[in-house]
Amino acid sequence: MMRIFRLSHRLRDPRYYQIAVLGTLLCCGVFALDIGVRWQNAATIAVSALGMQLLFTRRLRLPHFDPLSPLITSLSLTLLLRTDTALLAACAAALAIGSKFLVRYRGKHVFNPANVAIVLTMLASDHVWVSSGQWGSTAISALALSCLGLLVLTRAKRAETTVAFLLVFAAMLFVRAAWLGDPLTIPLHQLQNGALLIFAFFMISDPKTTPDSAMGRALFATLVAGVAYVIQFVYYVPNGPILALIIVAPTVPLIDAWLRGRRYQWMPAKTRSHQTRANHPVSGVYR
Amino acid sequence: MRLLITLLATALTVVIATSAEAFCGFYVARADTSLFNRASQVVMVRDDDRTVITMANDFDGDVSDFAVVVPVPTFIEREQINVGDRNIIQHLDAYTAPRLVEYHDTDPCARYDWRLHRELDGAAVPATSDEMRKAARARGVTIEASYTVGEYDILILSASQSAGLIRWLDENEYRIPPGAERVIGSYLKQDMRFFVAKVNIDEQSKLGFQYLRPLQVAYESRKFMLPIRLGTLNANGKQELYVYALTRTGRVETTNYRTVKIPSNTELPEFVQHEFADFYRAMFNRQVQNEKERAVFLEYAWDIGWCDPCAADPLSNQELRQLGVFWLDEQGGTNLRRIAPQPAQNVFVTRLHLRYDAEHFPEDLMLQETGDRQNYQGRYVIRHPWKGKASCDTSVYDAGVRERQEREAQQLANLTGWDIDNIRKKIPFAGGRGPESNKEPWWKRIWG
Predict the structure, then answer these.
(1) pLDDT tens per residue across span A173-230
(2) Are strands A108-109 and B67-72 parallel, antiparallel or unpaired?
(3) How confident is the model at residue A9 (pLDDT cuts 50, 70, 90)?
(4) Using CA atoms, how far apart are residues A242 and A249, in angstroms rounded to an integer?
């Protein structure tokens, strides 16, 4: 009975849902859409991310090895990052997990792990890229992705980042179309982009790297949308949102200092009390 | 005057079935751009922010009726426009075209297992008058430059208002399709420029060409894109477009549409050899429908130094340079190379094929270069069963061949949507029996 109780509490951790949804997306991408994922890269990324997590868990003497966050990072990386070199895939995963432990401010990591890994490897090598168009743009697939993503968000109860980002970005696309005199099909087509939705639902929404207050998150998402627009439609560089997130991420401590809020924890308080790591001075924040 | 407002299309190429021996089978035929009507071809050479575009021209009317409007992402000068060589584009088309290869079964009575060999595949004359300039200025249109390049009179235009530009084009006998004002207005606000070209009859007769040569433009811009929106305004319905991208690093793909690999390495019935064009058209149509008419298809991605099997020789360094590949080493020498991989020249070719209209391709094609240097080609295989005299009982071999022939029939039906019974009728099944004779239990064939 106690076991069932613990299990049901454990499942409140939204990361299980994130893993399930990202895993489903990956399966759809590989088997139905052929998005160009190489299984060697997927395996390398997972091994490298879990290995790094284990390394830091030992080095920092954390009480508990947590495989969930590195798994989510691995899935995000597998979905978005493309490379023809397995070594670069391994480097990206190591960078992602490494940044989480090493680049921190006031107990929070600054950059979204998958985001920082994609941008740094992309800048460092011609052999890394993001295939943003590979998801296609049919309304149906967009809708499916949105619904699945929303499920995760409602579990995480922090939907405002995604909603604000999508609203502001969409508004700018529609205003641009109106200014250019373009038909509405153009901004709609631009929004029905699988990579944009994966970014909105699974990357920018990361509660560990967004501001603590709801107001702060909305402000942060607006900033990301604005910078993404400038990158993509003023400077004509692809992958605007992904680049914008890494540029805007350092403003999170400033926003937190200005708009205070409650720090996010993955697990509900009751569940954490069952585990000794809750008493550890650095537990939780490394995930 | 008739206006060809879209990117230009090329002359038809002739399918010449030369055969070349190669590891990946014997080359039999290719599916080049002549298979499709209204096919435009564009070669894009791209590295960093530098782009050289070559637009093939298949205009076959009276040359005095020819006029074209080309949007370019930035201002261009006389030296940035050139007239290219049509033959090079035809060569590039032939080199990158989807191909049919054939294998012959060896004698089944020879002392080794033929099945071992089943998996072989690796799978400056001013062209404007002062009056023209004045009239243009009155419309808010500035003729920034005018040149005669080869057989073309070219004007580079900038305008403050699309309405003025449209009126000016109209007055100068460029017939504009309805809806163009909106698109031109959008391009103007995005700081795009236009150049317009007509044929200079005197120059053309002096040069002596019987056809119009492709126009080339070199420019520097962050935008790696191909404007297709004006092309969608033509009332001719869906259009075919081939983009050959020549890059230094790797394969090119679209960032705002799906880039899908065309099915490849499929074994097909022998009769496809004589119907390869029909097969490829039917298969392409079906793939377009499967992707709901919204995908760009990858037909070829290969290091341009070699090929296997070759549908045509790789392009020489001189040809590549004429297409605008500006990073080629001058010492590179000639390269009529085939089959075996050669030291890389750092030129990677991507052949993209799309069928577009305004409904399914509302936005211009946005492109990106990836780091992917994996070779890919549309390659189809036919296997001829052993037709020599048999010195042993071939019933087991025949049953295997029938199984293979049935599988090939099903694959062909799946790819093209053709009726399976019609396909079966065209297949000479081994041993003179139909595929149904294979329905006997498998164990009956083990020991003969």
Answers:
(1) 999 999 999 999 999 989 888 788 888 888 888 888 888 888 999 999 999 999 999 9
(2) unpaired
(3) low
(4) 11
Task: Report whether B362 contacts B344 (CB < 8 A).
Answer: no
Type of residue at B318: Q
How far is A116 from B336, CA to CA, in rounded Å?
45
Measured N-to-C along each axis, helices B130-138 and B162-171 cross at an angle, to the nearest 10 degrees, of 140
How far apart (Å, rounded) are the C-alpha atoms in residues B418 and B421? 9
CA distance A137 to chain B (A): 7
Pick from B7, B53, B2, B10: nearest CA to B198: B2
> What is the distance between the alpha carbons of residues B281 and B275, in angstroms, rounded to a whole number?
10
Write the CA distances from B445 to A252, B82, B113, B349, B400, integer angstroms: 72, 67, 16, 48, 10
Nearest to A49 by CA among A27, A78, A20, A21: A78
Q: For residue A249, give both structure tokens.
A: 């991420």
Residue A199 touches chain B, beta carbons under 8 Å: no
**Residues of B engaging A, defined by a Cβ cutoff of 8 Å:** 182, 185-186, 189-190, 221-225, 249-250, 253-261, 291-292, 294-295, 359, 362-363, 366, 368-374
**Pick from B17, B24, B104, B26: nearest CA to B341:** B24
Q: Strand, coil or helix: what is B319?
A: helix
Q: Which is higher by pLDDT, A157 or B363?
A: B363
Q: What is the pLDDT of residues A243-267, one digit of tens each?
A: 999 999 999 988 988 877 666 665 5
ipTM reported for the complex, 2 dp:
0.82
- Distance between CA B52 and CA A237 in Å, rounded? 19
Asked whether the beta carbons of B360 and B293 are under 8 A apart, the reply is yes
Supply angle C-alpha B188, B190, B193, rounded to 5. 50
In the predicted structure, residue A104 carries a pLDDT above the cut 70: yes
d(CA B173, CA B67): 9
What proportion of chain A, given as a percentage, has pLDDT over 70? Answer: 78
Residue A237 burial by CB count (10 A; 0-12/13-18/19+): exposed, middle or buried? middle
How confident is the model at residue A44, as a pLDDT? 93
Which residue among A133, A179, A189 places its CB closest to the CB of B255? A133
Chain B contact for A186 (CB, 8 A cutoff): yes
